[in-house]
Amino acid sequence: xxxxxxxxxxxxxxxxxxxxxxxxxxxxxxxxxxxxxxxxxxxxxxxxxxxxxxxxxxxxxxxxxxxxxxxxxxxxxxxxxxxxxxxxxxxxxxxxxxxxxxxxxxxxxxxxxxxxxxxxxxxxxxxxxxxxxxxxxxxxxxxxxxxxxxxxxxxxxxxxxxxxxxxxxxxxxxxxxxxxxxxxxxxxxxxxxxxxxxxxxxxxxxxxxxxxxxxxxxxxxxxxxxxxxxxxxxxxxxxxxxxxxxxxxxxxxxxxxxxxxxxxxxxxxxxxxxxxxxxxxxxxxxxxxxxxxxxxxxxxxxxxxxxxxxxxxxxxxxxxxxxxxxxxxxxxxxxxxxxxxxxxxxxxxxxxxxxxxxxxxxxxxxxxxxxxxxxxxxxxxxxxxxx
Length: 387
What we know:
By secondary structure, the protein is of the alpha/beta class.
């Protein structure tokens, strides 16, 4: 580690401040400070001069400036406690693979870009269970809530369900109502009401019918339309994404939707898809929604098992036409696992965030950084140098 890191702290500046001042990528500055790796895209003496000039303008002592590029080997507790918040492991924004990185690694398609077909979807045993639960509910009926953090693959599974029903030519009508800026109360946005659900179902099964004015008449109209559609051989599945934004009254009203039937046949199945807040709303301890909770199976999209991370990465790279073992060092796997252990809501507790989106963003940033530095292999140092 260079003394440059301490020099920045002494003048109250961050690595991001330095990166902006000298016109270099922040990740490259992080790699320089932590690992003494200089960017290949800029002349080293020129960069040294710019950095020294920045430190002088910020009021650094002459001795600090002159020793900024010396290697710092001492790592005492005082140094660790002085590290700034920018060194904390944080989630990255969406990353794009640069042309330079594609050229450096011989990749013409971003391995972590949006999927274009079901065969590009990596399926672990956990994902397979959630996937099959959604498919079974859509095809045969039921009520399931899919819970997952942002980036865990919920939307991918919804798209997969739509594609699977279409490819298999199943007589299932998926109904996906939505409300722009939906929130669970009117102070934050527009609430998602049961009338929105009723209108979406009616429009899907009887698009030519004019909805009745009164809620009661419209609900009877929907019931008849669903019975007619069922008699024609169709099943109906209500899929609500961002379901954590559903107000409690709307959740309670789902019971009426689930009770629509003809004989012993339920006319509507329901799939809710949402973030962990949805699990809180469907808690067995909430007596106000107990009639819904008792009918709902909750399935959770868990993080990738660290033991499966290498398999996931190999799969993604193979789908882009490149084998990962040529440029991905084994030490990078452990570094990714460590970087994506983030603080939880509970104090002093860290949880895994090894979800596909987070892993993809970190790997893409590491490949961009490696290309900028001219490093031929992604290892733990590269992963830790991503800022």
